[in-house]
């Protein structure tokens, strides 16, 4: 409950990093002469005098372990505040080196000001926004759709709805790009792409789930693109009669060889991969230009028979309206085209390899969306204006106008007007193999040079495959570095100057080869598209969520976004997922939910300041404010307990019982009072706040920890009683342990302890005091455990330093072995306890966990002697609702008048029925008024003997002198005045030992001592006499306001 500090008190900054060039020596308490802290010249020049204060500098705001500069640690507030209060000297504590851990709990790679490539030759290769983002995104978005299926899409939908298809796709990707721009300009962006953006915005649960499926989607996408390339190659082999085995196995062979080559390029390094991408971009651009050029080259008779007539207004108008065939619809056509618009994360996925990700990702991604969107529209409109929907390819369908005029009507009017009769396409579709609707090689026919289109197709597939092959390991490596899935941490290791994820490359290679060999890509394709869309949806939702949370930390440099547009983008992505394939969408959501649950259960030890935390805080404040406006009602009473445990680990039994009473029901506030001068105890108090809260979280105790520093224990407890809580979330019960050493403690300690109980009654708190036979205080064991852990840490540090300094040198191996004795030496400093003491320690350790375990079959005996509003009955009832106490029914004991026990029992039974509280038995005690046995009374007299004045036989002057000298002692008059109440406590203990000695827990109404009437020692004697030689006993006294009701 309290902790006293006897020495020390200097505030030590545990993470001060010296900085600057000049040195100034400071001396004072706690620091030996010669200790130095360097002072920046800028401080002196700015202020004109030497000071510990520092001017603002970026180094103060870096994460620990930053690769772009050392983190500097500013002086602590205590150093600045306390330093000049000690005889005018500047007292500066020792400094320690940075531990290399960031605020996130993991080593960081701070890249906010990484050195440019040209200034760091031979170092890591970093890309600008063009080669790093724009080129990659364009290559990934320009896929085989551009050359193979775009003409079919516009043939089915017409160029009217076709424009809608492209624009709708661009709307989804643009909204996602705007959201991504806002997120990545809200702080330093490291490697990991979509995973990094989502995890740092929504937390590890969302980031961990989407990161894994996004990396898997990229790995499988490699197989899809490579198979598309292999199919094109095999078609050429068939045309030239050069099949190796058969078409299926040839696709597998070509696909595996291609993946091996792509893997070689990727493993060679990002520099080689970037050069390969540039070569593929040039080929792709030439192929696209070739299409535009081809539309202006006059068509030949062959091309005309296949439906190409150069630019014709009648063809353009005929192709305006949709002509959906074979069960196709707008949504089915849209679902086929939309995957072509994906790929906007290709640049973000290598965010760790960009010079300035914050600037490069928004600029490169949005420009890529614009350029590729215009390209798709331009190519599609050109084809729609030059090629008819259906053509036979037969010269015989040419209309000879010399034979007379021909009336053109029906579906193929434009072709008829241009001299070809393709009406047979509508009667016999098998004869119609050309045109927008029937020929996937329209682009090859339209182009100026057909082989360039084939080269463009190769370029599109290979560039997309290469981008996915690079993206998957990069994202996967970032995920593994964060150690969200501990089994995958093996893949976090990087190699070379660019920290290449070689292990990730190999894994991606194996996955892609597996799907090339055995995967049904037609089934996998919609799942992969949905995986990408799920990441887009979460990026949009991340932006909306961060904006909605209104956290002061949400300050994106990119201003052209809107939270509601981001929400619309997220909804659109979810809708498109179902449009593409409903079962794939459900499967995606199912996988994501399972991964989310897994990460949530595992609770990774990371803290990224996500918007989820911000929204939780906003909701908590809002709910607390709304709760504050509601008046208390007896039906909504909840136990909200302020527990004076001291450190969270010091009295585990007290904490566990309080937690059992409040878990899911109410507030549990673990509190500690540090006693001593403020300057001595503040450091330990501040250090213990987070440490104790983390321990509660680790042990899954749903409780809060708070502490105060005061000169007196009672003053600290009074501060807690008055200031704890927030609004309606305020403690209404004080719970503390029984002071077993009251007979040997000093008078002031007893006065403080009893005074706390008086203060609790004054502030109308319910009060509970727990006593166990073995005691509650485990401080000794906690201290020993900390010493053991400290020694083990020293041993580990020593071994590490020796192994790092002298690897493989035999002469030092002996020293290393001796270092293993550090722990043994440290622990064996104290002599081993005697067998009797060891046995008592074992019993205490066992008793400290009694309330953590499932309770054996037994009872909870409730001695409800005084009506205190029902708290004495409600708390044990709550215990019976817990799994650990389910085998412990209530037994109720009440005081009754002699001769009417049956009537009193019936009345209590009716009352319990109205309260809907079940019990196994009701006992009426009608002999409480009987005087206690002589031996019991003798034991009580012996207990209070040292604290009595014994005024009998002394003269009045002597008596008055004794009272003035020891006003706290028990006078004969006091004993006489409260003789009946004293008899009651002693008698009650006899009955408790008689009737409840086998109970698992005893609940007894706590006696109250009137202020300034009952001395502190007499009151402690009452509590001791009442609860001695009993199983665990909880004394309870409510604040005499009803906490139970039988009204609905």
From TrEMBL:
Biased composition, class Acidic residues, residue ranges: 95-112
Domain annotation Amino acid permease/ SLC12A: ranges: 132-642
An MF annotation (GO) of this entry: sodium:potassium:chloride symporter activity
Pfam families in UniProt: AA_permease, AA_permease_N, SLC12
UniProt keywords, alphabetically: Cell membrane, Chloride, Glycoprotein, Ion transport, Membrane, Phosphoprotein, Potassium, Potassium transport, Sodium, Sodium transport, Symport, Transmembrane, Transmembrane helix, Transport
The keyword Transport appears for this protein: yes
Region (Disordered): 1-38, 91-115
Membrane topology designation: Multi-pass membrane protein
UniProt protein name: Solute carrier family 12 member 1
The species this protein was found in: Merluccius polli
